[in-house]
Amino acid sequence: MPEQRPVATSQQPAESEDDATLRMLTNLQDRLYRITAPILVNNTDLCKGNARNLLGFTAKNKYSYSIELASTAERILGLDERLQVLGVLSGSGASKVGMRRGDKLLAIEGSSIPTGLNAERQAAAMLLPLMKNRAAVKLNVLRNNSDVELTVPLTYACAFGIELGNSDHVNAYNDGRRVMITRGMMNFVQSDNELAYVLAKEIAHNSLRHASKQNIVGTVSAIIENLVRIQPDLTTMAGSAGIKAMPQELDAEADRLALYMLARAGYKIDDAPRFWQRLATQYPATVLNGYTAIHPGVAHRLSVIERTVGEIKTKQASRRPLVP
Length: 324
What we know:
The chain has helices at residues 17-41, 70-77, 93-96, 119-130, 183-188, 192-207, 210-213, 217-227, 248-264, 272-282, 291-294, 298-317; strands spanning 51-54, 57-60, 84-88, 104-108, 111-112, 136-143, 146-153, 155-158, 161-165, 172-174, 178-182. The protein is α+β, with helices and mostly antiparallel strands.
């Protein structure tokens, strides 16, 4: 449900529009990370060469947002010049050793972590070579004004970025490296399990390199870059925004892989056919910025989904490996 804004009092002024928007988007992004975590961690052998060691948390500072929103991020999220942990991947090494939201990054393996305007990019360049041949890394974080040292086991997981699209369109995108779920789609789903269906489907498309096979990587990447903004340019989203309709064979291939990923991650798959049918009914292909417009092979997809659900249930009952 949409977050209600607090009523203004003499002690508590009403939130500005920017404040309310940033708070809402942060809550939705947190939900995405939480639902995606078991899919990424439990499917490294199914994500087709896209798995690698990860730290298992996300960190940002106030400059991770637009210049206009830097002060809002400081006020609402408590961010400053230092990179601060905003999300910890459930089941990751970071989670297991007690990394917390709000921890501020001080150093890794004894070297100070950059601060300021380009801290995210500089820290990523610094961290990447350190993570290739290690089982764990030593991090120092600032917590309650104390320097806390943590030895963080690296987490082997499917290495896809998970993004929130700031749009009411009921859609989802993948560009080979990232998955994006729109606000509209998150409002449409009726449970965490349904959100997992959509996330797994986009992760499966990435694992199968479908954006590359369709020659739409650049187009989808541009859409993702636009929709991650607090104020995206929605005039560029007319029609299907230049995305080709997915051939039904590729779409069904992703549905099949996604169902296996979901089952291995502990999600219930029985309601998958009903969910995809409801989405196609409420947002048919004539809704040009909706999911079905770029995934029109609904009948074929549903037949494959129903068959795959039965196949997985049989394997689960006989305790056979859940491998497509």
